[in-house]
From TrEMBL:
Top-level division of the source organism's lineage: Bacteria
Family affiliation: Belongs to the glycosyl hydrolase 8 (cellulase D) family.
Protein name: Endoglucanase y
Species annotation: Limosilactobacillus pontis DSM 8475
GO molecular function terms listed in the Swiss-Prot or TrEMBL record: hydrolase activity, hydrolyzing O-glycosyl compounds
Pfam family for this entry, one: Glyco_hydro_8
Phylogenetic classification of the source organism: Bacteria, Bacillati, Bacillota, Bacilli, Lactobacillales
Length: 378
């Protein structure tokens, strides 16, 4: 009987040591984490609609899928990043690209003008695959940036990818830009006749994307957009000691203020919630001083707590007590790209997102975690 107890104790000790070693290996081996993230992400979320077309499923039900332009943008971006390591082929990227091209939005009084913007949502209704009209700027930005990355990863396709990138970024400026506020709107539906024309999504402030679009097009408006949106973000960040910014803000040429609850989608529209959580990721690689100042203010707030939770008021009060990869992944990404800036402790506190397999039932968590792994890890 003593031998049996000893044997079980030995098994338990070996199991604990093995599990701990496995976690350490996972966290300390970036290439393994990156490859595994991409493999699990693609297996869980990419659905082939035909031999030459695929989309990213953003619902938790594979038999009742939903495609979003935002999800398609992440999918293209992640696939381009995977292509750098040889884990994805140009055919994988093109299948996702073909789906986007087959679901472009139309504008005008009678929806008569085709654009290179993507319709924001598709789903099955009455046995048919249908699309909802209108675009979402965050999805279009990631699709355009994915094309820019893909042109570098697969140079034999660069001419084609850059041509599509020009067409898409031209239409972003034509239909998703407010020159009065120097900011991108939230979608082509927020026209000059809409009360939402002055609405800005803070996670659309993407200075490195705007730099890439300017390098390709030499269109000065991308410099204006970059400057205007960084100014608005800095204004919002400076309004609270936390440096936090809201999901959405009303902007004018020289001022920005958080929206009130339920202005767009939820009671947390004016809080640091599931849109603004991407801001650290979007600012992380920029060398612009405004981007760095805003990022540093936010990151130093997060560094005061080991347990970063899923959302805050702008004054710093927790909206919930649970953690989420949607919030921790962008923070990990940002600290990985900006070491020795006074918030290095976040590297250790947020790397828990890689200590378990990538989730298969939350496309948003999975996408942001995959980007943090594949682009944030050196």
């Amino acid at each position: 009987m003593r031998l049996t107890k000893f044997t079980w104790l030995l098994v338990a000790v070996v199991t604990i040591i093995y599990t701990a070693t496995l976690v350490i290996v996972r966290v300390e081996n970036p290439r393994h984490i990156q490859a595994e993230c991409y493999r699990r992400w693609r297996s869980a979320y990419v659905i082939k609609q035909s031999p030459h077309r695929a989309f990213v499923n953003t619902s938790n039900q594979r038999n009742n899928p939903v495609a979003l332009s935002e999800g398609q943008g992440y999918g293209l971006y992640i696939t381009a990043l995977a292509g750098r390591h040889g884990w994805a082929k140009p055919q994988d990227f093109d299948q996702l690209l073909n789906y986007y091209l087959a679901h472009r939005d139309y504008v005008g009084p009678h929806q008569q003008t085709a654009t290179y913007l993507m319709k924001w949502r598709q789903y099955r209704k009455d046995g048919r695959w249908v699309s909802d009209a209108n675009s979402a700027t965050d999805g279009d930005l990631f699709i355009a940036m994915a094309l820019d990355r893909a042109a570098t990863v697969w140079p034999q396709r660069a001419g084609y990818y850059h041509r599509l990138e020009r067409q898409l970024t031209n239409d972003i400026l034509a239909y998703e830009y407010n020159p009065q506020t120097r900011a991108l709107t939230v979608g082509d539906w927020a026209t000059s006749k809409s009360k939402y024309y002055r609405l800005m999504r803070t996670s659309d402030v993407a200075p490195t994307f705007f730099d890439a679009f300017y390098r390709l097009s030499h269109d000065q408006r991308w410099r204006i957009v970059k400057g205007g949106m960084l100014d608005h973000l800095a204004d919002l960040s400076g309004q609270h000691r936390t440096g936090l910014v809201p999901d959405f803000a009303w902007v004018t040429a020289g001022h920005a203020k958080p929206v009130k609850p339920w202005t767009v989608a939820s009671k947390n529209d004016g809080n640091y919630s599931y849109n603004a959580c991407r801001v650290p990721m979007m600012l992380a690689a920029s060398k612009d001083p405004r981007a760095q100042r805003t990022l540093t203010r936010m990151m130093k707030f997060f560094s005061q707590s080991y347990h970063v939770t899923a959302g805050y008021t702008l004054a710093g009060k927790q909206l919930t007590h649970h953690q989420s990869g949607s919030f921790s992944a962008p923070i990990f990404y940002a600290v990985s790209r900006n070491r020795d800036h006074g918030y290095d402790n976040l590297f250790d506190s947020q790397k828990f997102i890689f200590s378990k397999p990538l989730t298969k039932d939350n496309y948003y968590d999975a996408a942001l975690t995959s980007i943090a792994a594949m682009e944030g890890m050196n």
